[in-house]
Specification:
8% strand, Peptidase M50 domain-containing protein
Amino acid sequence: MGEKNLAKKKVLFIVYIIFLAYLIMLVIYPFFHELGHLMSAKFFGGKINGMKLAFFQAKAFFQGTFNSFQSAIIHISGFALPFIIWLVFILIVPKKAHPLFEIFKILFSGTVIGSMLAWIVIPIIFEYKKAPVGDDVTRFMEKINVSGFWISGIFLIIFLFSIFLFMKKLGDIKDIFK
């Protein structure tokens, strides 16, 4: 009976850690997403007015006059900065890491890789004039003169590469529960 109770406590602890890590991801990802916009706007000479970070809502505030190329870079930077951070993280953390790192690796990977789906789907929708107004992907597409099918294809390749890399770097899930 004691071992069963201990196993139950371990599982509850893991669930608690996963939930806590997920909540942290809901803050960390939007922060780096908006920071990506701000960094590229600043790089192109924009004035940074701040960032609003709230639960399920984040917004970067900046001003400046940007050409089409610069605007496109600013819009894609919201995806690019978290992706670059994830890429460095996934390459640095060993395949078998502490269970907390494994949980973070799964959640961070899921968040970043999942965010690529918008970059695969929305460019195609954009080609049919049905893309969501104000979305980073839509704004990016409005600034470049490239087919949405090309953008979708490029991001599909990045998406598949990211899944491959994640699977290669993922430790044994059973080890988390030991």
